[in-house]
């Protein structure tokens, strides 16, 4: 597989307050070790689980982090920062540690999927980009996993590049959806970058550019003799299916077969039934029926449940934008600084303090039964989900192949209880907070109470 060089990252792709805080830290000499954790506060409505994704891009970003000469020159000219601070940025590199859940791991609310431990300025600066990368891919992967579960093994292709929210979003959607169980993508660069299998058909414009629909089909079949899918709903879907039956006879002596047809409009289930009957009556039993057009996991589920003779689905906009719930209520919060556990106590947004670990429990059949959220130094029973992936600013192992991540995600989904794999809301998966973590929260609260703020609105997660 040919891969592209690592895409350049810009240190200024961040929020202004990261830099204003960094200058204040610099002025105050605050450079001791800090730990931040990324987690989701609560699952979106109707989501029973989430899938961790985006770690590869986060680690690449951290490893390459630096301020370019052009960025430093711009900062010097913007009038917000003093020269000594800007000079210090010239040598800034990420030298910290990262612990994280493997990509493709199922996770739940309040569970950290990534922890950054580094000198405070470094750990602070990377907040915005880390949230940006993890939130988006985890969001898309979770939506895509629901589509894959609904499709029950049928072909699923990502069609979402053209309506994705920008080029990076379209490319990373192709990666995240394949990770979560899609068969492949129409986005060619994802094939080159990560080896995601590529699928494609034709546009209505191809048919319209020909004076005759049959001529368009024949032209395409002869140009793509071993990989052709005919788009048959430009004019009259049933008539086009009959035309393909006749065309197949003419192509057969040349060893060319029609692989599939695509329907992109109308009542997809009903049209698929009519087309399937026409193809079968014409001896084209091996031709697959592929459908697309405003699909999501609910539409896929309904078509499958209705027994529609559909072999595959092209899913785009609603998956790539997670149209029903287009964001995660997620955060990257300070959990420890200078050797002391820290916690946020804002009303409705309180956090559990300290560096944490998640232990997963299973029954005798390997089905997951519950998680324990506890302190990082608590050696509890079960499978520890956060593991070391970066030390002293360098990745500990080569990036796993995306196919390996995909296999891990499939195993994770297969281990969920049946109710959680469905599309309907299910009783929440049990995540228990350990006694040591409760005790740590009490200790932090008592420490804070010795120096309370004027408006102390304490709460617990």
TrEMBL record:
E.C. designation(s): 6.3.4.21
GO molecular function: glycosyltransferase activity; nicotinate phosphoribosyltransferase activity
Pathway participation: Cofactor biosynthesis; NAD(+) biosynthesis; nicotinate D-ribonucleotide from nicotinate: step 1/1
Domain Nicotinate phosphoribosyltransferase N-terminal: 12-134
Membrane-spanning intervals of the chain: none
Catalytic reactions on record: 5-phospho-alpha-D-ribose 1-diphosphate + nicotinate + ATP + H2O = nicotinate beta-D-ribonucleotide + ADP + phosphate + diphosphate
Family annotation (InterPro entries): Aldolase_TIM, N/Namide_PRibTrfase, NAPRTase_C, NAPRTase_N, Nic_PRibTrfase-Fam, Nic_PRibTrfase_pncB, Nicotinate_pribotase-like_C
Nicotinate/nicotinamide phosphoribosyltransferase domain ranges (all copies): 156-336
Domain Nicotinate phosphoribosyltransferase C-terminal: 383-440
Described function: Catalyzes the first step in the biosynthesis of NAD from nicotinic acid, the ATP-dependent synthesis of beta-nicotinate D-ribonucleotide from nicotinate and 5-phospho-D-ribose 1-phosphate.
Protein name (Swiss-Prot/TrEMBL): Nicotinate phosphoribosyltransferase
Taxonomic source organism: Aromatoleum diolicum
């Amino acid at each position: 597989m040919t891969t592209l060089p690592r895409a350049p990252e810009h240190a200024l792709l961040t929020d202004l307050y990261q830099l204003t805080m960094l200058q204040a830290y610099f002025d105050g000499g605050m450079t001791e070790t800090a730990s931040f954790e990324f987690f989701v506060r609560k699952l979106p409505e109707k989501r029973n689980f989430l899938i961790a994704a985006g770690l590869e891009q986060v680690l690449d970003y951290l490893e390459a982090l630096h301020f370019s000469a052009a960025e430093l020159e711009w900062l010097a000219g913007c009038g917000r920062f003093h020269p000594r601070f800007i000079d210090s940025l010239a040598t800034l590199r990420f030298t910290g540690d990262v612990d994280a859940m493997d990509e493709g791991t199922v996770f739940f609310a309040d569970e950290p999927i990534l922890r950054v431990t580094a000198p405070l300025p470094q750990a602070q600066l990377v907040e915005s980009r880390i949230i940006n990368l993890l939130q988006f891919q985890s969001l898309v992967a979770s939506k895509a996993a629901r589509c894959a579960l609904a499709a029950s093994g049928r072909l699923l292709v990502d069609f979402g590049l053209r309506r994705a929210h920008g080029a990076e979003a379209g490319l990373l959607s192709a990666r995240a959806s394949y990770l979560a169980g899609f068969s492949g993508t129409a986005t060619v660069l994802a094939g080159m970058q990560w080896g995601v299998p590529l699928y494609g058909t034709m546009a209505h414009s191809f048919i319209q550019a020909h004076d005759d629909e049959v001529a368009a089909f024949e032209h395409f079949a002869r140009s793509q003799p071993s990989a052709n899918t005919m788009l048959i709903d430009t004019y009259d879907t049933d008539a086009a299916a009959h035309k393909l039956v006749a065309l197949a006879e003419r192509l057969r002596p040349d060893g060319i077969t029609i692989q599939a047809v695509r329907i992109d409009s109308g009542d997809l289930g009903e049209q698929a039934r009519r087309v399937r009957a026409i193809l079968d009556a014409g001896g084209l039993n091996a031709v697959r029926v592929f459908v697309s057009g405003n699909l999501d996991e609910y539409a896929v589920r309904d078509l499958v449940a209705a027994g529609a003779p559909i072999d595959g689905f092209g899913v785009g906009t609603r998956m790539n934008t997670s149209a029903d719930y287009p964001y995660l209520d997620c955060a990257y919060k300070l959990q420890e600084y200078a050797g002391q556990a820290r916690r946020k106590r804002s009303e409705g947004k309180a956090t559990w303090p300290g560096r944490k670990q998640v232990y997963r429990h299973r029954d005798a059949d390997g089905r997951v039964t519950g998680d324990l959220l506890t302190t990082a130094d608590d050696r509890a029973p079960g499978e520890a989900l956060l593991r070391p992936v970066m030390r002293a600013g360098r990745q500990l192992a080569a990036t796993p192949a995306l196919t390996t991540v995909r296999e891990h995600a499939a195993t994770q989904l297969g281990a969920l209880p049946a109710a959680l794999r469905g599309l309907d809301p299910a009783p929440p998966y049990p995540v228990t907070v350990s006694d040591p973590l409760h005790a740590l929260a009490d200790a932090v609260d008592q420490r804070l109470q010795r120096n309370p703020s004027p408006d102390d609105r304490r709460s617990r997660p």
